[in-house]
Specification:
By secondary structure, the protein is of the alpha/beta class. It has helices at 18-38, 80-93, 109-122; strands at 48-49, 61-65, 71-73, 76-78, 99-103, 127-129, 132-133.
């Protein structure tokens, strides 16, 4: 019998864990990619305007109003009371907190006005409305 062949009833002394670690790293990378891709934002159909302004500022927060009237703060669904509480905390932390309001073109105007009223009550004055450029 040759030295390279083990007997069937002899236990293995070591286990090769390299393939298992490779699989764990691949799954970790896939998990990280899927988590970051899932919080990109809420998809809404933005109304068109002739002129658009850039709102690239630090600590920029976005309030999104979907076509069904749902309100989101940075892609997380909130009620008007929760929105006011979060914005009050943000205003306390960053007094010059800019907010971008992104409403669906088919969103209820009443919900947009309620969001603007919440922003006014909190004292946030640096507000931008997101539109896409009209191609006339």
């Amino acid at each position: 019998m040759s030295a390279g062949v083990q007997e069937e009833n002899q236990p293995f002394d070591d286990i090769n864990v390299t393939p298992m670690l490779d699989l764990a790293y691949v799954l970790l990378v896939i998990f990280i990619i899927m988590c970051t891709a899932s919080i990109q934002g809420v998809k809404v159909k933005i109304p068109k305007a002739k002129m658009t302004a850039s709102m690239a500022k630090p600590h920029l927060k976005g309030v999104t109003i979907a076509d069904n009237g749902s309100v989101f703060l940075d892609a997380f669904p909130v009620t008007m009371d929760q929105l006011e509480a979060h914005l009050t905390e943000l205003k306390r932390a960053y007094p010059a907190q800019p907010i971008v309001v992104k409403g669906d073109a088919h969103a209820q105007y009443q919900v947009v006005m309620e969001v603007l009223e919440v922003l006014k009550r909190v004292g946030i004055t640096d507000i931008g409305l997101v539109t896409s450029k009209s191609h006339d």
